[in-house]
Amino acid sequence: METGDYFESYEDIGIHKLMLEDAPRNKAYRESIHDNKELFKDKVVLDVGAGTGFLSVLCAQAGAKTVYAVEASNVYTIAEELAAENNFSSVIKVVNGRVEDIELPEKVDIIVSEWMGFYLLHEGMLNSVIEARDRFLKPDGLLFPESATLYSAPCSIPSLYGYWQDVQGVSMNCLASKLREQASKKPVTEIVASDDLLSDAEVVVWLDLREVTCDDIKSIEMRHVAVANKEGRYQGICLWFTCTFPSVQTEPVTLSTEPEELPTHWKQTVIVLPTDVPVELGTPIAYDLSLKQSPENCRRYIIEVTMLDPEEVEHPEYCLCHMTKCILVRAMFEKYDKEYVGDAERDKEKGDDEKEDEESTEKENAMNLEEEKENCEVDNDGGED
């Protein structure tokens, strides 16, 4: 998607309808802003990629003095209408243009933006937020959200496998194979049930929006040895993300797209594997994952998954898989815990007992001295009489 096409795509109000019907998304932004009104009161806010102006109005409701709503597409006219509809025309200043190209008359206290795409980085809007931060945010300014984390886990994909084995009594595996072939050419966006995850999640990358640079997100790579926590079919890699917002007095709000949470318009992203691998509890699943910005278009990422032989890669120091080497390492750790950590705890208990005895003896000696002192005073009183 070229930059011009990207902004033109957001002129379709159906896209905005989809986002604004996303209750978990809207709730996370509203709570993070309205629960921290003291942060917004009389402050200057920049809304990057304001769209219809929904977030700008939330900031104005929270007491912002000025909100610069920057929107490059023609939807900026709706943002102007929305500001007027909610009686904030004097607060919300809609700016039509790319944040990279515009100028503002002042630095801002807060940047708010809904920049996340599928698998967090799709569409490359984070680059725009980073540039806005570097150009316009005060040194002690805040970003909403302020951090983001991308996760991965191996998974099953019933929508491309099991479902087609029996469609009302009709086997349709031939169609399923063609669907998988099509899906292998680009990631699939769909809702993944938590039961279809085959292991605990692994962090692919954690981004601190206050410090991350555009170079940091050009290429992200990780190697993971997951351990199956159930029996199943290893058919793909599932990606999802979370974002966390600043907070002063309340628990920080987290917007989560993980399978266990309520579905969002981001759903989850699945990279379909070329093979279907059966796994059982304790099976190690090794893979390399890379996300690289396209050199032709920074709004596109090239995602690659390389399936690895668990026998040939290094496992985590304490791996719960059923491979012999990992079982032996766990046994060594358990033996160490039993012999050395146990001895240390016993020594500590012994030391505590000795300390208690010493304290008791000291207390007893002090009491004896006090008693002797009182006896001496009584004797002296008797001598004077």
UniProtKB/TrEMBL annotation:
* Keyword Amino-acid biosynthesis carried by entry: no
Biological process (GO), any one = methylation
Q: Which residues form the Methyltransferase domain?
A: 45-141
Q: What is its EC number?
A: 2.1.1.319
Q: Which CDD domains match?
A: AdoMet_MTases
Top-rank taxon, per record: Eukaryota
Every Protein arginine N-methyltransferase domain range: 147-304
Biased region (Basic and acidic residues) positions are 341-353
- Which segments show compositional bias classed as Acidic residues? 369-385
In this chain, the stretch annotated as Disordered covers 341-385
Which PROSITE patterns does the record match to this protein?
SAM_MT_PRMT
Q: State the UniProt keywords alphabetically.
A: Methyltransferase, S-adenosyl-L-methionine, Transferase
Q: Which GO terms describe its cellular component?
A: nucleus
Please give the Gene Ontology molecular function terms for this protein: histone methyltransferase activity; protein-arginine omega-N asymmetric methyltransferase activity; protein-arginine omega-N monomethyltransferase activity
UniProt xrefs under PANTHER family:
ARGININE METHYLTRANSFERASE 8, PROTEIN ARGININE N-METHYLTRANSFERASE
Q: What is this protein called?
A: type I protein arginine methyltransferase
